[in-house]
Amino acid sequence: MPRLGYLLPTRERVMEGHHETAPLLALAERAEALGFDSVWVGDSLLARPRHDPLTLLAAAAARTRKVELGTAVLLPALRNPVVLAQQVATLDRIAEGRLILGVGIAADVPNIRAEFEAAGVPFDKRVGRLVEGLALARALWSGNPVDWPVGPAGTSDGRWKVEAGVLGPTPHRPGGPPIWISGSVARARARAGRLFDGWFPTGPTAAEYPAQWAEVLAAARAAGRDPAALTGAMYLTLAIDEDAALAEARINTYLGSYYGIHADVVRKQQKCYAGPAAGAAAWLKGYADAGASHLVLRFAGDHERHLETVARLRRDLGW
What we know:
Elements: E1 3-7, H1 10-15, H2 22-33, E2 38-41, H3 53-63, E3 68-71, H4 81-94, E4 99-103, H5 110-118, H6 126-141, E5 146-148, E6 162-165, E7 179-181, H7 186-195, E8 198-199, H8 209-222, E9 231-240, H9 244-259, H10 263-269, E10 272-275, H11 277-290, E11 294-299, H12 303-317
């Protein structure tokens, strides 16, 4: 049975001019009460303004008891990895081991390039910064003294320098929270298998998912890792309404407002469903049958209704 996650509408609420956090935390509590397995928060500084994900998840961790808490997805290249390692370790302690770190390299579009420039981070170096920065964070999460760069035999490019650095606190989970990486292209799948704990794409259809997930697992085996330890996830957007035409209009309006580009462009890159509940159930089941074991759902508005609808669909599916 797949696990189901719910993305809090941080971006949407800021777009609406509603910056309060109490309603977002209430939605996290509601998702937990309805049986969702995880609650997620997106990330952006200026390109798509929203609440800071790590801070908001700390509040959600204090208001919930069972749900996992994740970033969908964090852009670690925008952050100093030593600072990030401390923040994540503290958050994982607050959440008592319920944290999942979903990460990504960021899309190559003008407003995100401008966001990186504003943060003083070279956009074209973002992949290397992500890989090295997370490796450094993992080293610090051990609680042992860390010297960085690690020398000729290691993987460090030496962007940061640490001398006998010891981080405290260490995360609740030894070695830190699992890290899932997004990306739907072949290089991203290989990176997920070689280096990370899960694959978290937006692009494949249910029919495409098995072959692409097999590439991730093959990359893990080639790197001498246990493929059974990896999680295959999927990020999906839904507008559920018995009036299919209304659902289509809602999701297109939602995506256009969210990204500032035509919805058709987004829908080529991110898999979406718009239509009746029965179709949504079949669509989600398709991904579960294809091997996705954790489905993270973003709703195009009407969050309370969507949460209740998906909870009912889950019961009907026997999940």
